[in-house]
Specification:
Blueprint (H helix, E strand, L loop, with lengths): L1 E11 L4 E11 L2 E3 L8 E3 L3 E5 L1 E6 L4 H9 L1 H6 L1 E2 L8 E2 L6 H10 L2 E9 L4 H9 L5 E7 L4 H9 L4 H12 L3 E5 L3 H6 L17 H15 L5 E4 L9 H11 L4 E3 L7 E2 L7 E2 L1 H10 L3 E4 L6 E7 L2 H11 L4 E2 L9 E7 L4 H16 L6 E2 L13 H9 L1 H10 L2 H5 L13 H16 L15 E5 L4 H6 L3 E4 L2 E5 L2 E2 L7 E5 L6 H12 L12 H4 L2 E5 L5
Parallel strand pairs: 1-4, 1-5, 6-9, 9-10, 10-11, 11-12, 12-13, 13-16, 16-20, 25-26
Antiparallel strand pairs: 1-2, 2-3, 5-21, 7-8, 14-15, 17-19, 18-19, 21-22, 22-23, 23-24
Helix pairs in contact: 5-18, 6-8, 10-12, 13-14
This protein binds zinc ion.
């Protein structure tokens, strides 16, 4: 299994390669220095060569994704994928079936995806769906920000939080820790209303205590990916202060903020939002311990799905349409609302503009990476259009003219913000950056020892077309896409963290489970080999 990708223009920012013409050699699933001269080759002259794409934040598996599929049968009828010699049948739309999710990521040149919000109780479901999602290596983040049993520990026995988190990751097969509206979801579930500040109380703790305890524990455990935080007050005018307060609370410890765009609003609560993207971009630039993905909104249809159930309730009030709410007993909430972002709508155009501001003002592409919070801000299939918005000023200006004028005037996008992302910067925000932030050393680069995940694009002036239709996609050294067609379907790997815990924590948690859960402690951990194996472990304690 050897291959030489010959004569392409290579963008491998992790190794300081920015558009040099050179060969990339693959052998036995890895990038290597050399292969024999008579090895099979792809003539990549005129093509752009990048590592396979890495999506740091998307929603592709688990109960909420499944509920969203059930909520949109009309999309299934409109986008049927027929069975072929290579592909299983399935459906597309905003929330594709498992198979189609894998195929379409691969057809886009993506080879690694992180499912960003898994209730631990749903780990089996998520694992089963990820095993059913071909083509991509996948990891998932475990929701711990509204877990009442963990709250008990934070209140009574904070020194044990670290071992508890390590146990939860081991028990679920997860990769990292996710907080979603910490404390706020549980408070809302109790009928006490969402939290508005980090010092509001729920079950004897405050969001600030939850954030401090968990971010501190994750930092001490040296997990490869830091705490992944969806801040409180998502979507609320004025929430940029909560975002800054959250960052202040975690200062000095690494953290990643999910979909920063949704947390960058000025204005008064209940009033019209304004943009605070410049302030947040500046703050982020000055704090190397923090990173974020943007959560860009794209005009058109979306499907909002979030563990932040109170946000969904608000969206339901706005749309007056379909809504699902589903609590996961003492762990988290979940809400789903189909949504359409309209370019003439003030709020939607402002959201769109804030996402672009964050990208264009970001001083460090390694720490502000691309996402649409699929499918919340738009489908992952819209990434090529987003890339064009970043790379092509004329195209962007044309789109700016079509969007709600008042909203765009409230941004700095018309103030000579003429930055155009380079191919190198695109390679950073779509692969090298996310891989580094995730601590995935074998991903996002093309140095010797990296996974042989490679995407080849024709170098076209229309960047949307270019990134929508890679010429070749290579996964683990095998050509899976050729000339825009899937030519082989492969199973991806589960990526999970390896982090030891003190076994004594299990007795502590057993008591908490007796009191709080309906599930027996001994039945809770995932043990089924077909769900857990094969997997690749990424060890804690060795930061990338
Ligand atoms: Zn998300």
């Amino acid at each position: 299994m050897t291959l030489r990708i010959a004569g392409g223009r290579v963008y491998d920012p992790a190794n300081g390669v920015a558009g040099e013409v050179r060969d990339v050699c693959l052998s036995d699933g890895k990038v290597v220095e050399e292969v024999p001269t008579d090895a099979p080759r792809i003539d990549a002259r005129g093509m752009v060569v990048m590592p396979g794409g890495v999506d740091i934040h998307a929603h592709i598996a688990g109960p909420k994704v499944n509920a969203a599929r059930r909520l949109s049968p009309e999309e299934h009828r409109g986008d049927v994928v027929e069975r072929s010699a290579i592909m299983r049948s399935g459906t597309g739309g905003m929330v594709p079936s498992t198979f189609v999710t894998g195929y379409r990521y691969a057809l886009l040149g993506y080879t690694t995806v992180v499912e960003a919000a898994t209730p631990p109780l749903a780990a089996r479901h998520v694992l089963a769906e990820l095993r059913d999602t071909p083509m991509i290596d996948a990891a998932f983040l475990v929701l711990l920000g509204n877990n009442v049993a963990l709250f008990d520990l934070i209140r009574r026995d904070p020194a044990r939080v670290r071992d508890a988190i390590a146990w939860w990751l081991e028990a679920t097969g997860g990769y990292g820790v996710k907080l979603v509206n910490p404390g706020g979801v549980e408070r809302w579930k109790r009928g006490e209303g969402n939290v508005s500040s980090l010092d509001d109380e729920v079950v004897g703790v405050t969001p600030r205590q939850v954030i401090e305890a968990i971010a501190g524990a994750v930092h001490e455990l040296e997990l490869p990916h830091p705490t992944h935080v969806h801040c409180n007050n998502l979507g609320v005018a004025g929430n940029w202060r909560t975002t800054l307060d959250t960052l202040h609370t975690m200062e000095g410890r690494r953290a990643h903020l999910a979909h920063l765009q949704f947390h960058a609003y000025g204005g008064k609560p209940g009033g019209r939002p304004r943009s605070r993207a410049p302030e947040l971009a500046e703050y982020l630039g000055a704090h190397p311990e923090f990173s974020a993905d943007v959560g860009q909104v794209m005009f058109g249809d979306a499907m909002t799905m979030t563990a932040d159930a109170p946000v969904s309730e608000r969206l339901r009030d706005i749309t007056g349409g379909k809504w699902v709410n589903a609590d996961t007993e003492v762990e988290t909430g979940c809400g789903i609302v189909p949504f359409t972002y309209r370019e003439k709508n003030y709020v939607h155009a402002l959201q769109w503009g804030i996402g672009l501001e964050l990208f264009l003002l970001s001083p460090d592409p390694w720490r502000l990476v691309l996402s649409t919070d699929h499918p919340n801000g738009g489908s992952f299939l819209s990434y090529p259009r987003l890339i064009r918005l970043l790379m092509d000023r004329d195209f962007r200006n044309e789109q700016l003219r079509r969007a709600n004028k008042k909203a765009i005037q409230r941004t700095v996008l018309l103030d000579d913000l003429d930055r155009e992302y380079t191919l190198e910067e695109i390679a950073i925000v779509t692969r090298a950056g996310p891989a580094r932030l995730l601590g995935l050393r074998d991903k996002g680069h093309l140095g010797a020892g990296a996974d042989a995940d490679v995407t080849l694009y024709d170098d076209r002036a229309d960047r949307e077309e270019m990134f929508a239709t890679p010429r070749y996609v290579i996964k683990g050294g095998r050509v899976v896409v050729r000339d825009g067609e899937l030519v082989e379907a492969l199973a991806g790997d589960l990526l999970r963290v390896g982090v030891p815990h003190d076994p004594d924590i299990e007795d502590v948690l057993r008591d908490r489970f007796e009191e709080r859960y309906t599930v027996q402690f001994d039945s809770y951990p995932v043990t089924e080999p077909w769900l857990l194996e094969p997997a690749r472990r990424v060890a804690a304690g060795s930061p990338a």
